[in-house]
Design a protein that fits this description.
Layout (H helix, E strand, L loop, with lengths): L2 H4 L10 H11 L20 H8 L3 H5 L16 E5 L5 H10 L4 E6 L2 H9 L1 H7 L7 E5 L15 E7 L8 H11 E14 L5 H4 L2 H5 L6 E2 H11 L5 E7 L5 H7 L4 E9 L10 E5 L9 E3 L5 E3 L3 E4 L1 H9 L6 E4 L23
Parallel strand pairs: 1-2, 1-4, 2-3, 4-5, 5-6
Antiparallel strand pairs: 5-8, 7-8, 9-12, 9-13, 10-11
Length: 352
């Protein structure tokens, strides 16, 4: 009997950290061992400068990559970044090049086998990138308990996560811990798998479906609720891509439930930051986004063009690493020859 069919019997046992460690540390040896495409479906095309950075990552690290999106936020130079569930370290080593020697990347993972691969190539990548010393380190621990792993409060500019939060049995704890270690104005930028509605227990307690990033998927409403409870800004959708599972056994287990790979960004806005709408002009200085900054599905900032933004977006831009990339103007002060653009009113595309 297949593992998928055996998992029908798991009942109320639930999925624990040890089950995920076993799946990603012992059962999976390479990307091709996955039973679905949920963990390997990119949500948007990969820009040339990122492809170049990925090509510099050691092949063994890439072979154990199990992400579901592209977690490369903009404006990275000099930033301190934390990768939740860093696995073999592919995203860490890719981002290491983008933050530069003055930035730093920390990866945290609970799976010893993955960490062994990641740490094995620290010196290799330091030399490959031409750095005098490594700007990457890896920590063993749980993403629900960052403090216990030695990570300190108000430390990171950005936290990324690539198809990992859905694997956690306590997603509220993950968001709380992320909020705690982020600096004011910091961002949680993450790709994950979401479902069109709340999953039933028979799917949520199936270890294979959980390991394949399907059984632990949140629905959009749950993410929005958890983010608000923790104190984050409203989740802002960057990309969404429908997942075709392409495995008949798994499809028979999930029935009519639909899944997407989506990238969201959440910000830790300081509580005293004013939230008053205004006009902004993007200066075009962000690497890879010189002509246009595609912030989310609602806001696309073209270099030199006036854009009307809402109060929360103003608070996000002014309190974050993006503050120096924009000129802020009161409403009605449009320079001669400029025509303000209004944001699109798109919802969580692909999640309904």
């Amino acid at each position: 009997m297949s593992d998928c069919m055996n998992m029908r019997k798991c009942g109320s046992q639930g999925v624990k950290h040890e089950d995920i460690k076993d799946y990603y540390g012992k059962q999976l040896k390479k990307t091709s061992d996955l039973k679905s495409n949920a963990c390997v479906a990119p949500a948007k095309p990969c820009p040339a400068f990122i492809r170049k950075a990925l090509q510099n990552v050691h092949p063994e690290v890439t072979a154990k990559y199990y992400g579901c999106g592209l977690v490369v936020p903009e404006c990275l130079e000099g930033c301190s970044v934390l990768d939740l569930g860093s696995g073999s370290g592919q995203d860490c080593y890719m981002l290491s090049q983008l933050v530069g020697e003055n930035g730093h990347i920390t990866g945290i993972d609970m799976t010893k086998e993955q960490l062994t691969v990641a740490r094995k190539y620290i010196d290799y990548h330091t030399e490959k990138f031409g750095f005098k010393k490594s700007n990457v380190d890896f920590v063993e621990g749980y993403i629900e308990a960052l403090g216990e792993a030695g990570l300190t409060e108000n430390t990171y500019d950005i936290i990324i996560s690539n198809c990992v939060i859905n694997l956690s049995p306590d997603k509220a704890a993950v968001l709380r811990e992320a909020y705690t270690v982020l600096k004011d104005g910091g961002e949680l930028y993450f790709s994950d798998v979401y479902c069109n509605k709340t999953l039933p227990e028979e799917i949520k307690t199936c270890k294979v479906l959980w390991g394949e990033c399907l059984g632990g998927a949140l629905c959009w409403e749950d993410l929005a609720r958890l983010a608000e409870e923790v104190g984050f800004s409203i989740p802002r959708l960057v990309t969404a891509n429908r997942i075709s599972v392409d495995n008949k056994e798994l499809e028979s287990l999930i029935g009519d439930y639909k899944f997407v790979s989506a990238t969201y960004r959440l910000f830790k806005i300081p509580k005293n930051c004013p939230r008053v709408g205004c006009q902004v002009i993007y200066n075009g200085n962000i690497t890879g986004s010189e002509e246009v900054l595609e912030f989310d599905v609602n806001y696309m900032f073209k270099e030199g063009q006036v854009t009307v933004v809402d109060g929360e977006m103003v608070a996000i831009l002014k309190s974050s690493r993006f503050a120096d990339e924009f000129l802020f103007q009161p409403m009605g002060t449009t320079p001669a020859g400029c025509c303000p653009t209004q944001p699109q009113t798109l919802g969580p595309s692909g999640l309904s």
